[in-house]
Amino acid sequence: MVKKNRMINALLELGKKIQDRHPLLEATIHRTSFHNPWFEKSNYWKALDALAESMLTREELTKWCDTYQFPVPGEHGKTVGLIFAGNIPLVGFHDFVTVYLSGHAAEIKLSSKDPYVFPAILALLSEQDSDVEHRIKIVEKLENHEGVIATGSNNTNRYFEKYFESYPALLRKNRTSVAVLDGSESADDLNGLAHDIFDYFGLGCRNVTKLYVPEGYDFDPLIQAMNPFAASMNNIKYKNNYDYNLSIELLNRSDIISTEFVLLKHVPEELFSPVGMIFYEAYDSVSQLHTALVQLREQLQTVVGKYPVAGVSHSGFGETQRPGLFDYPDGEDIGHFLFDLSCKTVS
Hints:
By secondary structure, the chain is an alpha/beta fold. The chain has helices spanning 2-19, 23-35, 41-54, 58-68, 93-102, 117-126, 132-135, 154-163, 187-198, 220-226, 236-251, 286-295, 334-343, and strands at residues 79-83, 105-109, 136-138, 147-151, 169-172, 176-180, 208-214, 256-258, 263-266, 277-283, 300-305, 313-315. It contains 13 helices and twelve strands. α8 links the parallel β4 and β5 (169-172). α1 packs antiparallel against α4 and α1 (2-19) packs across α6 (117-126). The model has no long low-confidence stretch (mean pLDDT 95).
C-alpha cells in the first residue's frame, strides 16, 4: 500500500508539473521541436496535457492498480523491455505508466525521433519516488528483459517476432482509425472529428485516416470544421507531403476534393491515407458496413462516431487522442500481461 501510494502521488505530482509548465519540460520540448519538426511545441504540450487529464488522475490510477492488484510484491517483480515508437509525442507513455504501477522494472529503448522529453519526465518522477532511478532504465539495447512490449511498423514487427520469440511479448503492428458518419453530425461533432484527423498532423494510429459516409454525403460542413487546421501548412514537413500528394493526384487526373491544406479522395480499398490526405468511401447500409469493418478489425485502432464495431475500440468525436489507462493499444490488455508475467518463473 505504501509503495502504491508513493507511485500514484509521484504521477499526480508529474501531472501538476505538466500543468505548471515545468522549466525542465519547457527546455526539452523546445529542444525536441528543433530535433524533429513534426513535434511542434504546441503539439507536445497538447500530448502532455491529454496524458495529465486522462491518465494522471487519482481516480484513474487507483482504479487501474486495484483492478489488477498492483503493485506486485518485490519477489515477483520482473524486468520488462519497452520499445517506444516515435510517430507522435510520448506515444510510449501509456506502456511506461502501466509497467511502473505494476511494480515491475523496465528497460526502455526510446525512439530517435523523441529522445529528450521522457528522460526529463523520469527525472521529475524521481524527485517524488527515488525508486525510479533503480527500477527504470533507458538503454540503447534491451539486454536484461524478461518480457517485452514493443510498437513498430509491420516490417519492424517481423524483426520483433524473431528477436523476442523466446520471451512473453506484446508486439504491435500498424493500425489506423476510421470514422463512420451518417450526415446527422452536429457542428461540435465535426469540430471534434477535425481534431481526430489533424492532431499531431495525423501521424498517430488513433488519428482518423478514412471516413465512411452515406451516398450523396455533403462534405462542406466537414471542410468548414477542418478550416482551422489550414495552419498545418505552416509546418514545412506537412506542406511538403501535401504538395507532393497534390501533384501526384493532378498528374493522374484523380477525382479528388481539394482544399488548400487537405485532399479528400474516394478510395474504397485502402484504410491508411498519406499525410495531407483523407480517404473516404460511401456505404449503402450501416449493418453491411459493420460487417465489413469487423473483417478489418486487425487493422483498426478505434472507430469514431455513433456506430460501434464489434471487437474494435470505440471513440466519441474528438476523443481519439485522449485515451485513458484502460484504453489499450490494439485491444491487448497490458494489465493482464503484466500480472501473468509476475507469475512466471525464470529458468
